[in-house]
Amino acid sequence: MGVTNMAASPIQSKRSSTQAEFVQWLAQLPWWLLLLLFAGVILLYQFLTNELYTAILGRLVGGISTTIFVTLTAFTTAIILGLIAGLGRVSKNRIIFNLATLYVQVIRGLPILVQIFYVAFVVTPAFFTLLNAIGKSLIPALGPDNFMVTSTTQDVSLLARAMVALALAYGGFEAETFRAGIESIGRGQMEAARSLGMSYFQAMRYIILPQAIRRILPPLGNDFIAMLKDSSLVSVLGVRDITQEARLYVSASFRYPETYNTLAFVYLTMTILLSLGVKWIENRMSKNGRGV
Amino acid sequence: MAAVSDSKQPMVAIKNLVKSFGRVDAVNGVDLEVEQGKVVVIIGPSGSGKSTVLRCINHLEVPTSGEIWVDGIHLTHNHKDINAIRAEVGMVFQQFNLFPHLTAIENIMLAQRVVRKRNPEEAAQMGQKQLERVGMPEKANFYPGQLSGGQQQRVAIARALAMNPKVMLFDEPTSALDPEMIKEVLDVMLELAKEGMTMVVVTHEMGFARNAADEIVFMDKGVIVERGTPNDFFASPREERTRVFLNQILH
Q1: Which fold has domain A38-285?
Q2: Cα-trace Rg, chain B
Q3: Over the stretch A242-286, which tens digit does the pLDDT of each residue have?
Q4: Which of A6, A262, B114, B117 has the most crowded Cβ, counting Cβ within 10 A?
Q5: What ipTM did this prediction achieve?
Q6: How close does chain A come to B224, measured CA to CA in Å?
Q7: Which residues of B touch A191 (CB under 8 A)?
Q8: Domain boundaries defined on chain A
C-alpha cells in the first residue's frame, strides 16, 4: 500500500491512498492481454460480418483437426522417446549413454525443417530399401509375396513421415528435459531406494521419475505449445493442417492479409489458452507444500 | 524377529577393506566383525572414513579392495545378490532421505511391496506397527514436508525396520537435527539396541555410544586406531590419538 503522509488530514490521506491504489491497479493490469483481446474482438467482428473472413475461417477450421492430431501424436511419441533417451543420458552404461548422446546431439544440431525433409525423403525410402532386401533374402522362408517384399515407400503417408520427424526432433529436446529433471533429484533419493533393496529401475520408476516429472511439467507444457506451433512445418510436405489450408487459399485468392490474419488468430487462440493452462499448473505446484 | 542364522558366525564381517576416491584413500585396510545382537559404534573425526566403511557394507560404495560378508553371504558385484543383501540391511541416513512425494506410511510400504512382494494389507499393517514402534502412529498420512526433522528421521527408521532387516546401519542419524530433536531419535535407537537389533552406528553422540555400544571403534585417517568396550574406551584410552580426540569432543 502507498505510504501516506502522517501530517495530512485523514480525509486527504484516504483519498491519496485510494488514488495510489488505483494507479497501482492500473499498472498491474495485464495490458498485453487486453490489447490482444481487443484485436481478437475486432477479428471476431470480421468473422461475423465479413463474408470473406467467414469463408477463410471456415476453410482453416477444416485443418484444425489435422493440426491437433499431428501435435498430440507427435508430442506423445516425443515424450516416450525423450524418456528413453533421457534415461540413456543418465545411464552409467557407456554404450547406452553414447547412443543417447549421439541422438540428442544430431537432433539438436539440425533445423526441424531439414529433419522433416530428411525423414520424409531419405530415411523412409532407405528403410524400405532395407526392408525389401531383407524380404527378398527371406523369400525361401516366407514366400515371394511376403509383406517385406511388397511394401513400398508410398505405403507411408507424408502425414505419418512428418509426424515421425516431429516426434524425433522433439524427442531430442525432451531427452534433455528429462535428464535435467532426473539430475535435479538429490542423490540421497536413489541411495535410500537402493538401500531398501530396490533395483535401479524400480528406484527410477517409483522414486526418481515421479518427482522429476512433477518438476518438469511446466517445461513440458511449454514444449507442447512449441510443438503446436512447429506442427505448421508439416505443411511443407503438403499435409493439410491449418497452415497448409491458408497457403492453398492464398494461392488461389491472393487475399494475403485476410488469410494470414485469420491463421494468426487461430494459432494465438490455441497457444494463449494453452499457456494459461501451463501457468495454472505452475501455480498449483508452487502452492502444494510437499517440497517437490 | 527370529534369528535364522548361526549365532557363532558374525552378522557383518569386513576383511582388509580399502576404498579410494581418486588418489585419496578414504579407508585404508579396515577389519571389523559385528556379531549378531551387538551394537558397534564407530566414532572419529570427520574425514576419517567411518561413513565410507558403513556405506561399503551395503555396497552404496563399491570397495576398491577387501572383502565383506553380511550374514555369511559374500558381497560381490552381482546386482541380484547386492539387491538381496540390501533388503536385509536397513540403512538410516544423516539427511533422512524420505521420499517427499509419498506419505509416511507410503514411504514405509513401498519397498515392502516391490522388494518383499507383500500385499497391500500386510504392508500397511507392518507400516502402522513400525510407526507405533517409533512413537508416531498418528502421522501415517503426513507428507515428509509436514514433519519435523526428528519425526522424519523416525519415519526413516520405521521404513528400514519394516523390511525386517538383520542389521541396521546408522550414518550420523542425528547430525542434521536441531538439538531438541536429537533425543527422540536416540531414544528410538536405544530401544532398538535393547531389543537385540544388530546395529552399526556412526555418530558423534558420545552419550549414546556409552549407553548402547557393546564395542566402540575409533577411526582416524582411514584406519581403526583403537577399539574396546565403552568403559575401557572412555576411561582408559590406550592411544594418544584417541585421547586427543576424546579431549576435544568431551571438552
Answers
A1: MetI-like fold (1.10.3720)
A2: 18
A3: 999 999 999 999 999 999 999 999 999 999 999 999 999 888 887
A4: A262
A5: 0.91
A6: 25
A7: 60, 93, 97
A8: 38-285
